[in-house]
């Protein structure tokens, strides 16, 4: 299980659930994936997270730390 955040938002324009990974925002074009259903979007988001982590690790690049939403 990874500890990265996913923001899942409905897009009326695309008629899809769009997935954004806040910790990857400075390194990846967002939204980074989507799904026809919320469940599909979550699965696709998990796959994208794993794909980027594996690629960055194999290329010797730094990996962003998971973060926690700070509520004031």
Structure description:
With 72 residues, this protein is an alpha+beta fold. The protein has one domain (7-58). It contains one helix and three strands; from the N terminus they run βββα. Strand 1 and strand 2 (16-20) form a beta hairpin. The termini are far apart.
Unreliable sequence segments? none
Q: In one word, what is the shape?
A: globular
Distance between the termini: 27 Å
Order of helices and strands: EEEH
How many separate domains make up the residues? Answer: 1
Q: Roughly how much helix do the residues carry, as a percent range?
A: 25-40%
Strand content: 15-25%
The averaged pLDDT comes out at 93
Largest sheet: 3 strands, antiparallel
Per DSSP, the total helix count is 1
Adjacency order of strands in the biggest sheet:
1-2-3
The overall strand count is 3
Layout of helices and strands, plus pairs?
Blueprint: E1 7-11, E2 16-20, E3 33-35, H1 38-58
Antiparallel strand pairs: 1-2, 2-3
Key words describing this protein structure:
globular; 3 strands; about 30% helix; three-stranded antiparallel β-sheet; alpha+beta
Summarize the structure.
The chain has 72 residues and is of the alpha+beta class. It has one helix at residues 38-58; strands at residues 7-11, 16-20, 33-35.
């Amino acid at each position: 299980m990874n500890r990265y955040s996913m923001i899942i938002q409905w897009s009326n324009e695309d008629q899809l659930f769009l997935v954004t990974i806040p910790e990857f925002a400075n390194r990846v074009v967002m939204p980074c994936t989507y799904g026809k259903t919320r469940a599909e979007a979550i699965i696709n988001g998990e796959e994208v997270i794993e794909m980027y982590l594996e690629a960055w690790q194999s290329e010797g690049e730094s990996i962003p730390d998971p973060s926690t939403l700070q509520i004031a």
